[in-house]
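Recap from last week: sequence in, structure out.
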Amino acid sequence: MFSSLMRGAPFPMMGAAFEGVETKGSSQVDEEALIAWQDVLDMVAAGRPGEVSCPYCNHRPLTIEEVEHSTRISCPKCKKFIQGRFQP
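Predicted C-alpha cells:
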C-alpha cells in the first residue's frame, strides 16, 4: 500500500515542478532520493520517458502511471519509486 505523500515546496525541473514526493521505505522526503531521481524526472518532463532507467539498478523500462491525481514512476525490478505531481 502507498504511504502518504509528503506536502512541501515543489522541486524545480525544466520549466515544471514535481511536488509531493515519496520514496520506497520512507515517509519523509529524502534529499538523496530526489537527487537520484532528478534525471528521470527531467526526462519524463521533457517527454522522453522511454530513455530513462532506474537510478538504483539501471533497469529499463520504468513504469510510469497516473495514481490518484499524481504521477508514479517505479522500477518493476527493485520496486523503488517516486510519486508526486508535475506542475507547470
